[in-house]
Specification:
The protein is mainly α and 196 residues long. The longest helix is centred in the N-terminal third of the chain and has 27 residues. Strands 1-2 form a two-stranded antiparallel sheet. The protein has a domain of 133 residues. Helix 1 packs across helix 5, helix 6 runs antiparallel to helix 8 and helix 7 runs antiparallel to helix 8. It is 64% helix and 5% strand.
């Protein structure tokens, strides 16, 4: 855990910088304006959900507990072939913007700490061989941060049916966050030699 004591400043500063950048991206740019669409007959959908309240969780339709067996069942296959197909996320509580922002910032600190762990394993800090160049730190941290911020973006389109446009906006976000994280770490990387 020595890397935390040496890299706490870039971990926190990168979290703050990415937090601010994400706020600007979401509020002041058109990038995410089309992430979610308005469902047809939204009032009817809400009424159906009120009549059959779902406990918190993730649901998919049509549903079966055993897809292997269901693929041999003509009744299920009719539902499967005719659709509609959907994934429904029911949160455990009413959404809270403040709570989400706090959790988002905590997530950014955790990603920063994991990036710091990878960077500390790959790069010398205050060593007798000298400090790594700015661009060397930038490349290592940027690669690790890109995995942390955007590594799973395509899975939502592959497995959950999200549009590819939605996943690409997540990749764009992740690339911006990774570049900012890399810049902060390269700027604040511990310099000098332990020999003084």
């Amino acid at each position: 855990m020595e890397f935390i004591t040496q890299l706490w400043l870039p971990i926190l500063v990168s979290a703050v910088v990415v937090f601010m950048a994400s706020s600007v991206i979401w509020m002041a740019t058109p990038l995410h304006k089309k992430d979610y669409g308005e469902p047809p007959d939204k009032d009817g959908v809400l009424e159906v959900m009120r009549r059959a309240p779902f406990p918190p969780g993730v649901y998919c339709f049509p549903w079966t507990a055993n897809y292997g067996a269901a693929m041999k069942d003509p009744a299920f296959m009719e539902k499967w072939n005719n659709g509609p197909w959907a994934t429904l996320v029911v949160p455990p509580r009413q959404p809270s913007f403040a709570r989400s922002l706090v959790l988002w910032f905590i997530n950014l600190v955790v990603v920063g700490a994991l990036v710091a762990y990878v960077a500390a394993a790959a790069l010398p800090m205050n060593s007798m061989v000298g400090s790594p160049e700015y661009l060397h730190v930038f490349r290592v941290v940027g690669g690790a941060a890109l995995l942390g911020h955007a590594g799973m973006a395509a899975c939502e389109s592959i497995w959950m049916g999200y549009t590819w446009r939605y996943s690409m906006t997540k990749v764009i976000d992740g690339l911006i966050y990774a570049l900012l994280t890399a810049g902060v770490f390269a700027w604040l990387w511990p310099r000098g030699s332990i020999l003084g």
